[in-house]
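Table 4 source record.
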Amino acid sequence: MLVVAGALLGMGYTAHAQSFFTTSVQAQRLKQDDGFAVFSSITKYMAAGDAASLSSWFADNLDVTIISSSRNCSKKQAREILRSFFEANTPRSFTVTHKASEANKKYMIGQLNAGGELFQVTIYATSSGGDPYKIQQLNISRQTAY
């Protein structure tokens, strides 16, 4: 894209090249920020098994369900629960399979390949008054074969 814009600039098509380049850059930014940018970091941290960084997205209190154990806990407790899970199940990959939103709520389902098993991860994040999104619910369950 830059080569084309540069070639057009060199040929005297300044306005056209600038317009082409600006439109292409804007389209790329829109593609990257499809309203779910909140999940880009979360996805990276899930894949890496980085509970400490992931916890920066946690609300002060959140609902955490890991396999069959469910509880409402503080951000610090949730970080430790997730850290223990990642120690027992080393992540190999994480893929987002579904995203949805409504008002100030975002919802994501993903597949975590960890510890030789597949897990379904469901995350609900909310935002209020222009604040950054925070994870309110995190659910990790074993994925069953059909």
